[in-house]
Amino acid sequence: MRFVLFVVALFLAAPAAAQGIQQTKGNYEDKFRQLDEVLPTPNTYRNASGAPGHEYWQQKVDYRITAALDEPRRRITARATIRYTNNSPDALPWLWMQLDQNIFRTDSMAELTDAFGGPGRRGPKVSLGSANEPTRLSMDELRRQQAMADNTYGYDINAVRLMDGADLPHTIVGTLMRIDLPAPLAPGETTEFTIDWAFNIVEEDAVVARSGYEHFPDDPRKGGNDIFLLAQWFPRMVVYSDYEGWHNKEFLGRGEFTLEFGDYEVEMTVPDDHIVASTGVLQNPDAVLTATQRQRIEAAKNADAPMFIVTPAEAAAAERGNPRGTKTWKFSAQNVRDFAWASSRKFMWDAQGVKQPGAEHETVLAMSFWPKEGGELWRKYSTAAVVHTLKVYSRFSFDYPYPTAQSVNGPVGGMEYPMITFNGPRTTLNKDGTRTYSLAEKMFLVGVVIHEIGHIYFPMTVNSDERQWTWMDEGLNSFLDSVAGYEWDPDMPWTRSLPRDMVSYMVSSQQEPIMTQSDSVTNLGANAYGKPSAALHLLRDTIIGRERFDFALKEYARRWKFKRPTPADFFRTMEEASGTDLDWFWRGWFYTTDHVDISLDSIYRLRIDTNDPDIDLPRRRAERAAEPEVVGIGLNEQQRLPIWVMENPGVTDFYDKNDEFTVTPKDRKSYASFLEGLDPWERKVFDRAVKEDANYYVLNFSNKGGLVMPIILGLTFKDGKTEKLTIPAEIWRRNAHDVAKLLVFPKGKELVQVVVDPDWETGDADIENNHYPRRIIPSRIEAFKSERSKSRVSRDLMGEAAGAEPDGRK
Fold this sequence. Notes:
Layout: E1 2-3, H1 5-22, E2 60-70, E3 75-85, E4 92-98, H2 109-112, H3 139-150, E5 156-162, E6 170-173, E7 176-185, E8 190-200, H4 204-207, E9 212-216, E10 225-230, E11 236-237, E12 240-241, E13 245-246, E14 262-271, E15 275-278, E16 281-282, H5 285-288, H6 291-300, E17 307-310, H7 312-320, E18 326-336, E19 341-344, E20 348-355, E21 363-370, H8 375-396, E22 404-409, E23 414-417, E24 420-423, E25 428-429, E26 435-436, H9 439-454, H10 471-488, H11 503-506, H12 524-543, H13 546-559, H14 567-578, H15 583-591, E27 598-608, H16 613-625, H17 631-639, H18 644-647, H19 665-676, H20 680-692, E28 695-703, E29 711-717, E30 722-727, E31 738-745, E32 751-756, E33 771-772, H21 797-801
Parallel strand pairs: 1-27, 2-14, 21-22, 22-24
Antiparallel strand pairs: 2-3, 3-8, 4-7, 4-11, 5-8, 6-7, 9-10, 10-19, 12-13, 14-18, 15-19, 16-18, 17-20, 20-21, 23-24, 25-26, 27-28, 28-31, 29-30, 29-32, 32-33
Helix pairs in contact: 8-9, 8-10, 9-10, 10-12, 12-13, 13-14
């Protein structure tokens, strides 16, 4: 396609004019509208830059707990002394506590609102059925129903008292409890009270929870053995924050927790042959460990590889024996938001020191606890993955803030708490007594350890609200665990982390905005883990660039370490620290269900018309000659039909030797007149354009998915060379539906192919409309044999009744 110079200006101006009209007419959408009207107004607690304000505050809660594990009854009995400090500017007439074990009561809101066949609580799946399929109840679900029927779960709150022994009035509301104070707790004041409670520990394999016990009936010890994972095991103070007041949303199982920081002194009395792993630092090793085990711990602090503290042989001996009494393990933890522990005689235990020169904790003990069922998989990879995680995450945030980091094997697939995580993968026991594992189990272990240890940074230290905004910890952590995963081994087939992994979810009808509250999300894994991770990868590798992104993320982590950020704080910090307006990105990825699908609809190649008839008219003649011949003329030639003018030369004239492209003196005079009419600057521009004879390409794009994104182009030229060009997302700012872009290349540099998103960076849903010219779509022929119907009417019941065994042939 050709154009004269003045047409260039008209062509480039036209889209702008049309887009300007669309601002007030038609289907205009402002994808770049700022989020100011959506985000909370900055204040003295949280400022406009995303940093804590100069009057930022948060409450402090300290716990002293004594607990006893009754192994035969699988029951916890405990007492806590709780010291609550009101750092808010408000007087508090009451306090609220979380009673998370109450979720397992048969009359709990979680149990009563669990929709059959729908997403929701962790645990066995059931099928609602359809016209062609029956409604189904799995064996796992039957087991759960029977466990709930056979046991009484939930807290027994035996007493709530002031320190002088006076009873405190309290009201239980599902998984919450209100404690009415004798007088409002004024700003800056502290109150202290005690609470006595007990509860039956759920069997995690039956009920499916975030904690519980696992029974091993086949262990050598008569009656078998158990692993106890204790979390959400004590009444915990509900958060009181500047942005919500009391966080009184019921615990329904999906939305996790947000908690207050404080100091803990905890004593757990357990059978004397148990090993306890716990949040905090062991305060009485002389009373619960052997001298040899204590020596091993000291040696492990400077070891280059994990060292056994409790060996396989010692764990095996404990498994076969019986306790002679009890031991009390004492742990202390400072500035943590929660406390969890595990106890079993089955545990092996290894440890390795991780050095952090100049940090508050210069040596961190990375540790793992696992039974023999974990096998070589755990020995090789658990503590190693802990060490790797600390090194990667600290690079993106801050030095690991605690003295220990632990991975404990048990029935919970993956859960996180300060300094301790519960992780599930195990080996397979073979008939010859060996234990082996699949690549999937190896990936699961390495991946889940990285993920759960990573949670000690987010949200155990950067204390986001998991129940309200699950993506703030799960999504951010999934992003970082994928970074750590690829740094562990890039050849392992990691999934659900990159934009390309999320295409099927982002085009599905089951998608909800990332900002949806967790208990309302249909597909929590994709919504809160995968899609936010994909968004952050896109920001880091494509939109902002690694250097500025990493700086901004580290600033966010530093600002909100041991504090409680909201989404607005994250969004504002990332923009402020990176120097990039990202409101369009947050709006599209986090507040809508749009997906990425940019189509390259057409490309026009334009070259300059010289207006010189001695140049342009011969070129136009050549272009005409290159056009396909009229079909009828070709058929006439095949039939050898005579041509009149060739058989009758007398009828020829001037036009038989000169066509419409013949140059005349008038053409040359018009050309000279055109040149004389140009202003000096126009003549200069025109002469240069003619001399350069550049290739002008106009690329027309349409946004079919709705999500505005940078347009990344893979360009292939006639000489075989390739280039990559990124057009910022702001090209869509005036028209989010259709845009055109002019690309100019020097003479001789001719485009032959353009591909949008050639490296699949953006998660474009339809890669076939990314190619211009369109490519032949690659596919496969799958050879298969049709299966016979499995319905009973299609079976040979006659033969089966007679005991016949068909040979499989028809």
